[in-house]
Write a structure and sequence with these properties.
The protein is of the alpha+beta class. The chain contains two helices and three strands. It has a single domain, classed as Alpha-Beta Plaits (2-Layer Sandwich), CATH 3.30.70. The relative contact order is 0.22.
C-alpha cells in the first residue's frame, strides 16, 4: 500500500534497503514494509523476537520514518 506521496516503486526500494541492512544480522521472511501517511507498518515472519525487533529498528533507521505497527509474527525456526 502506498500513499499519495509514496509510489509502489518507492515502497519496494524501502523494502530492499531494510532487507540489505538486515542481511547477516537477522532473518525475516516475507518482509513487507507498508508506507502509510503517518509512518511504517512491518509485516512478515521471524524466527525470534530479536529478529523482529532488529527489523523494526532497521526500518526506522533506514527510512527515517516512525513505526506505526510491527506485525512481524514470531514463528520459531523458519526454513
Amino acid at each position: 500500500m502506498a500513499t499519495a506521496n509514496t509510489s509502489p516503486a518507492d515502497t519496494g526500494a524501502l523494502e530492499t534497503l531494510v532487507r540489505q541492512w538486515l542481511a547477516g544480522r537477522a532473518h525475516v521472511h516475507d518482509l513487507r514494509v507498508v508506507v502509510q501517511e503517518r509512518g511504517l507498518v512491518l509485516e512478515g515472519r521471524a524466527a525470534t523476537f530479536y529478529a523482529k525487533q532488529l527489523a523494526q529498528h532497521s526500518a526506522m533507521l533506514v527510512t527515517g520514518l516512525p513505526l506505526l505497527a510491527n506485525r512481524i509474527a514470531v514463528r520459531g525456526a523458519l526454513s
